Structure formats: structure tokens, C-alpha cells
Amino acid sequence: MLSINTIALVTVNASRSAAVPAVFDTGLMLIRDENFADAHRLNSFSSASDAVVALTGYGFSDTSEAVKAARKYFAASPAPASLLVSCYPASETPAQALSAVLDRTADFYGVCLGAEETDARILALEEAVAASAKPCVLFLPLLGTPASVVSSGSLLDTLHSRSARRVVATYSAALSDAAAVMGTAMGLQLAHRDSAFALCYKTVPGMEPSELTQTQVDMLKGLGGNVYVTRGYSFRLLENGQTPSSWRYDEILYMDMIAADLQSAAVAMLAENTGKMPQTDDSSAQFMNRFSGILAGYTDRQVLAPAVWRGAAVGSIQPGDVLENGFSLWADCYDNQPEADRAAHKAMPVQVALTLSGSLESVVINVNVQI
User: Fold this and answer.
1) Quick check: 17 and 259 in contact, CB under 8 A?
2) Is pLDDT above 70 for 162?
3) Backbone φ and ψ of 229, nearest 5°
4) Terminal Cα-to-Cα distance of the chain (whole angstroms)
């Protein structure tokens, strides 16, 4: 399968992603397999029972983290529709295993581990995820005492120092809890095809809340980690659904989705045109008209919202301009196109400015009483 990046390249400046995955609602579990066989390399399952039968057939015990992870992934509510499982031999690293999967499919978005790995190999996997042309997000458990998890040189501390933006790391009691968080994220995406969601404050079935003090919660969240805790005796909440770079998972997800939709639309316009698209401003107008329709859909879904543009100037879009629909597009005149670009039959770059709608995570209630 050849990449479409050579035809329509999408870049998302000052944000977090760009590329085209096939799906956004399916997780991939990578499992180190001491009894590896080629038949274990990549399989898809639509239920916990199917996954458990297969994994136990591979030699994993019913109490193994891999089997527990499969159960927790599908325990999400709403439940995801499918899970990809890729076993890899002990001679491979998780990063190499991910590369082997990508040679076969791009039909996943979340990635987690189903067996213990060293911090060094996990960090190498994070680098592979961050560098991949196919965007995805790594879900990790943070194991140990709160003090050890936030200590200097720890896994979370290192991810935070890297400003890792494609990792959702959650303080957990077991490795398999990462699959529970991933399943929750994938299930929510499946259920919100026409609307938006935030991962913050969601319930994670299959995962037990941690007993943490507020100080410990603040330390973990201060490094971009997440916690699953009980608030007010009855509310089991995932907080804050963030990455070590402080970006929220849903923000990264929707930037990936927007980039994918714009890229696919650009390729479709070129491929479906029965004549040709000339190197003129009329062609730029056609691209921007198609892109506007796509972005308007994200405004309707409340992913984008009207706001003042506070970024750097983007062509005619200046700081302080109001983006009425949460987006604005601009392309320079073809009269200003460099000769090399014209000779290479390139279109004028389309600049897109977006303002995200954000999501509420706290509220202040002032009660005024007259006696």
C-alpha cells in the first residue's frame, strides 16, 4: 500500500498530529509471546470471549495480564467493536512489533501492551509511536507507589520531560488497566461518530479506583499522568484524560481526524476530476470550498467553535481576528507561486486556522442568600 502523502500532504502546525489512519475506534494490543508462532502475529477479535479463547490457545493462562487486558478492553461501556492482537517473539522489541503490524494494517488507533516490558523498551515504543507516519496513541499503566512514579528519571518523569503527546499514562494497580482505559476511549469514539466527547471524568469499567490523597493526585497530574479515583463516595472518574505534554486525548484525536478528512478530500478531488485542475486561483477556491464543508461538520459536532485567533499570522488571518465558525482558510495567489513549485505541478498551500471548542473540567457555583 503506497502512502497518499506524496499527493496531498497535510501538516498541522503548532498542534499535534497529521496523517491518515483508517479507523479511530480500534485498539491494538502488543504481547510478548514466549511461544510465538507466525499465526499469532496479527488477529482481530470482536468480543472478549473470542480473544480469551485465542490467547489461552496460544498458551497464556487465564490469569495472565494479556487475558485480563482483553477482558477489560471489551468491558468498556460503550464497548468497542474490535481489538487487534499482535504477539511478538522475545527477540523483538515492542517498537519492532509495532512496525511489523504497520506492514500489514493501519486499522487501529490505540496501542497498549499485554505483557511487562522494561522502561527503556517502553520509551523506545513511545518514540516509534511519535515518529510514525500513521498517527496512533499509546496507553500505558503507571505502576508502583505514587512517589516512585513521579520520582526523577521515572517513566512518567521522562515522558513529561519529552513533552510526549501521544501517550495516555494512567496510575494503575495492574498492567492490564491500560487496556481498560484504551477500551473506554475506543468505545466512546465508536459511539460518538456524529458528536464529540472528552475522556476526562469518564468511568472505566474493569478498573478499580486508586486510593490517593489529593497531594498525590496533584503530583501525578502535574507530570501529565492520569488517575482513576472515587470522588464524593460514588463518582468513579478518570482524570484528566491528558498526555504528558498536557494536551487532552480528545484534542489529539480530533486533530488527527481533521487532518485525515482534509487529506482524503484533497486526494479525492484530484482522483475524481475527469479533466484537470489547473494551477489557478479557481482551483484553490475549489479546495477551500470542499475543506470548508468538512470543517463545518466539526463545528456542528462541537469540536470547533467560534473564537479569537491568538496564534501567529496565517496569510491573511491575523492575531485578533474572529474565526466565526471555528476555522478560516487562506491560499496565496498563483501569481506568487515559485517557479520550482509550478514546474512540479504543485498546488498553492492551503493554510487552515482552527479554534477548538475545548471542554469543561470544573465549575464554580456561587450561592447568594438573603436572610
Assistant:
1) yes
2) yes
3) -135, 165
4) 73
Residue 2: the pLDDT is 60
Laid out side by side, the sheet with 110-113 consists of 43-45, 83-88, 27-32, 110-113, 137-142, 167-171
Rounded Cα distance between 339 and 135, Å, is 33
C-alpha to C-alpha distance for 180 and 25, rounded to whole angstroms = 14
What is Dmax (Cα atoms) for the chain? 79
d(CA 195, CA 144): 37
The pLDDT tens digits of the residues spanning 302-332 come to: 999 999 999 888 888 899 999 999 999 999 9
Cα–Cα dist 307/305, whole Å? 6
Written as one letter, the residue type at 322 is V
3-state secondary structure (DSSP) of residue 199:
coil
pTM of the model as a whole: 0.89
| pLDDT tens digits, one per residue of 184-215 | 999 999 999 889 999 999 999 999 999 999 99
Instruction: Report CA 63 to chain centroid distance, whole Å.
Output: 29
| Whole-angstrom distance, CA of residue 23 vs CA of residue 3 | 16
